[in-house]
Amino acid sequence: MSDTKKTPKVEKITGIKGMNDMLPVDAPLWELFENTAQSVLKSYGFGQIRTPIVEQTALFARGLGAVTDVVEKEMYSFEDAMNGDRLTLRPENTAGVVRAAIEHNLTYEGPKRLWYTGPMFRHEKPQRGRYRQFYQLGAEALGFTGPDIDAELMMMCQRLWDDLGIADVRLEINSIGDAAERNNHRADLIAYFEQHQEQLDAEALRRLHTNPLRILDTKNPQMQELVNQAPKLLDYLGAESLAHFEGVQAILRHNSIPFVINSRLVRGLDYYNRTVFEWVSDELGAQGTICAGGRYDTLITMFGGKPTPSCGFAMGIERILELMKLSGEIHAPNQCDVYLVHQGAEAQMQSFVLSERLRDAGLDVVLHCASVSGIGSFKTQMKRADASGAAYAVIVGEDEMTEGVAMIKSLRSEDMENNQASVPFDTVVDYLVDQITGNDHHDHCTHTHH
Ligand code: ATP
Ligand code: MG
């Protein structure tokens, strides 16, 4: 008897609120998303970059702007106990990518298309579609000035949605002009909100003189009418900003990418200018934005780099996976091809050899191994084989050892008479490869057999 059953009761340590575990049942969905995104990004010439999850707090404070939601109240910041450095778990990855690009001179030879994926951390109120550790995939096009790259980024997103089978998502675009244009608008916006101060909620009052543009982004239903009537930034754009915005629209129209102009669209982060865009779904409740992006022409100089006009986006992977689930088109079973069942020491050794040879041939194989209750009877092992989702069980017992054969049993065949065969050890691999690759309507997992 093993000791595990006598373990005394101990208090369980739980995970952290708002930080989720990805379980194997969801792995095929994540894999499908990641593989699809990776191939779309590659088809547009984007190269992957991985930066650390921890950066100096100053990077985000400078990059995101001090009066943004993220820097004001959402950052996981701490002091390095060893040397007192002020560090932060990245709440987003544009700042990190830009830091790395400057540090490694990535745009030395011309503009660069980059992408990243990974976990981000924000201390938010956890709810559907809003977590404290969440995953983003993003792209940054560094050193590009025109509307062409802005449109290309949006078209790349459209291709990703198409490839993922996501249909009901709409592209909203806006231009927030340059700093001078925003300043003119800002003065009028503050004056307008001051005239209607009694209608502002506490958050809006707090932002009135620090970041009034963000009031336009309010989710408070009582303020929607007020905000709808507010001076529109689009009316303050100069000729150059307007031409840029027109240019983006012309490319989208020419390529039949539907979009709507949302004059209230601003970005939560301060460093954006001109083009901003969001992809929004109505199927996700309050957290409907699956991707947000825009142009940030001055960010890199704020970090001490040479002027490098740029444009990028970040998408929330959890929200996208939820849409993929809702679209119902995903059945990527997490299955294997073969489960090996054995009884007796010699048969176990033979099964090890067989399973390695099957893997050499490109099959996915699960070898039955001992658990708390021991190696288990044939019956127990066959139950495991069924539960594994394998297409075939390969059975080796003492009789089979004597005869030099394995019993191969189809676990999915409806034809109960004809569902097993006795196969000599040295032809087991060929037999199974034939069965599995020869069967056209065989619906197994993602890899291909050679
Ligand atoms: P929101 O208005 O929903 O707070 P945001 O403006 O803070 O969004 P961005 O910083 O632009 O979001 O991040 C890009 C995308 O990342 C969002 O559109 C969303 O899909 C996703 N995202 C942002 N915060 C979270 C979170 N806490 N949990 C899950 N996904 C998130
Ligand atoms: Mg936010």
CATH superfamily of the largest domain: Bira Bifunctional Protein, Domain 2
Architecture of the largest domain, according to CATH? 2-Layer Sandwich
Helix content: 25-40%
* Class of secondary structure makeup: alpha+beta
Distance between the termini: 44 Å
Strand line-up across the major sheet:
1-5-6-11-10-9-7-8
Number of helical segments with 4 or more residues: 15
- What profile does the largest beta sheet have? 8 strands, mixed
* Tally of distinct domains: 2
Give the oligomeric state of the chains in this entry, treating copies of one chain as homo and distinct chains as hetero.
Answer: single chain
Q: Quick one: how many beta strands?
A: 16
Mean pLDDT score:
90
Over all CA atoms, what is the radius of gyration?
28 Å
Please give a structural write-up.
This protein is of the alpha+beta class. The chain has two domains: 27-177 and 237-327, Bira Bifunctional Protein, Domain 2 (BirA Bifunctional Protein, domain 2, 2-Layer Sandwich); 338-443, Anticodon-binding domain (Rossmann fold). It is 36% helix and 20% strand. It has an eight-stranded mixed sheet, sandwiched between helices. Helix 1 runs antiparallel to helix 5 (147-164). Residues 440-450 have low confidence and may be disordered. Bound molecules: adenosine-5'-triphosphate and magnesium ion. Magnesium ion binds at residues 69, 268.
